[in-house]
């Protein structure tokens, strides 16, 4: 098996290789150094909002969302606006020419003439890769079916780092719909690259982690997993608990969804069994899986994740466009 690559997050090494022109379909498209640089850039952006406000002047982002979204689309768009760029796109395919039978390929060949970077969300696994192959500008996967959601993982990594000062040497529980939850697949894939993570996979037997994701853990010498179905039994061992929604839109059968949707509900009583500094993450939207009373607990990190999502998308958009953040290089070399 592979050993995880070092994060060395506080060491100021040489700049990471340029990300200009890179499409991001999975975070495997970026090196660990590039991911580390994005984390550093997001932290810099957070405290230098005015300095970076014209980084992407004259740039245009297209958001092509063939599936519903609140956070991902709005944060991709806000990120570009806050960097001085502009945004076009559609939210819901019903008003786009896909309804007339246009292919993803033709849409991307068209939109490449209009914009400098594209974010695409689509219900089909692999759609973002098809889009990137057709486009002549960088394409960022904003979620392709039950497959991957790499920019959510960037938000998750930023949140883990802000809570623990690192993203590994941790026991991380992932709970809920591990079959269809694309955020889980992206996060596991990337954490395996950092290495030294113990995964506790908590799901009903019908919603277990896909084999291709488990293979990734098996191939990593310093990562391991256990599969369990009872959250209360394991919550006390966890450094972080990543809750997920049961993905109604990916079920073939309504009865199965209704039977499984409320399997796990994190409430104050369950949280009382957890470590005092455990972090609760959730990509959102939530339905019932985290009780509202948990929001006031300092362990709740899910709205921090939302904020980190916007900052990480600012870092990624400027990086794939090759637009330098004013002052960042000097700041890092200090
Ligand atoms: N986390 C996430 O992808 O949220 P949206 O579906 O609202 O974009």
Features of the shown structure:
binds phosphoric acid mono(formamide)ester; 334 residues; globular; Rossmann fold; alpha/beta; 5-stranded parallel beta sheet; 12 helices; 4-stranded parallel beta sheet
How does this structure look, described?
It is a single chain. The chain is α/β, with parallel strands linked by helices. The chain has 2 domains: 27-147 and 309-327, Rossmann fold (3-Layer(aba) Sandwich), CATH 3.40.50; 150-306, Aspartate/ornithine carbamoyltransferase (Rossmann fold, 3-Layer(aba) Sandwich). The protein has 12 helices and 9 strands. The chain has helices spanning 32-47, 71-82, 104-111, 127-134, 150-164, 182-194, 211-218, 231-234, 254-260, 268-271, 302-321, 328-333; strands at 60-65, 86-91, 117-122, 139-144, 170-175, 197-202, 224-228, 240-243, 279-281. A 5-stranded parallel sheet has the order 7-6-5-8-9, with helices on one face. Strands 2-1-3-4 form a 4-stranded parallel sheet. Helix 7 (211-218) links the parallel strand 6 and strand 7. Helix 1 crosses helix 11 and helix 5 (150-164) packs across helix 11. The longest helix has 20 residues, at 302-321. The two termini are 37 Å apart. Residues 69-72, 143, 152, 283-285 line the site of phosphoric acid mono(formamide)ester. It comes from Bifidobacterium castoris. This is Aspartate carbamoyltransferase.
């Amino acid at each position: 098996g592979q050993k995880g690559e070092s994060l060395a997050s506080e060491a100021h090494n040489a700049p990471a290789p340029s990300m200009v022109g890179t499409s991001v379909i999975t975070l495997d498209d970026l090196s660990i150094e590039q991911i580390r640089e994005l984390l550093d850039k997001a932290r810099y952006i957070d405290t230098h909002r005015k300095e970076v406000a014209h980084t992407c002047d004259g740039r245009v982002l297209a958001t092509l969302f063939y599936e519903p979204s609140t956070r991902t689309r709005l944060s991709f768009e806000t990120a570009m606006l806050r960097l001085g760029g502009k945004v076009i796109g559609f939210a819901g395919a019903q008003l786009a020419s896909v309804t007339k039978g246009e292919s993803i390929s033709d849409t991307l060949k068209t939109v490449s003439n209009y914009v400098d970077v594209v974010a695409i969300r689509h219900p089909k696994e692999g759609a973002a890769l098809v889009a990137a192959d057709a486009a002549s500008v960088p394409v960022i996967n904003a979620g392709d079916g039950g497959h991957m959601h790499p920019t959510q993982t960037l938000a998750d990594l930023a949140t883990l780092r802000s809570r623990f000062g690192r993203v590994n040497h941790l026991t991380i529980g992932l709970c809920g719909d591990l079959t269809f939850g694309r955020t889980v697949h992206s996060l596991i894939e990337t954490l395996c690259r950092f290495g030294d993570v113990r995964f506790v996979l908590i799901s009903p037997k019908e919603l277990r982690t896909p084999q291709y994701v488990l293979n990734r853990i098996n191939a990593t010498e310093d990562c391991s997993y256990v599969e369990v179905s009872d959250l209360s039994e394991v919550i006390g061992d966890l450094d972080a608990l990543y809750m997920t929604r049961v993905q109604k839109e990916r079920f073939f059968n309504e009865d199965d969804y209704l039977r499984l949707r409320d399997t796990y509900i994190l409430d104050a009583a369950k949280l009382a069994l957890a470590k005092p500094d455990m972090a609760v993450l959730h990509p959102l939207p939530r339905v019932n899986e985290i009780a509202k009373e948990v929001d006031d607990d300092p362990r709740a990190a899910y709205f921090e994740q939302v904020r980190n999502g916007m900052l990480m998308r600012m870092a990624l958009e400027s990086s794939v466009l090759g637009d330098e953040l004013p002052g960042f290089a000097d700041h890092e070399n200090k």
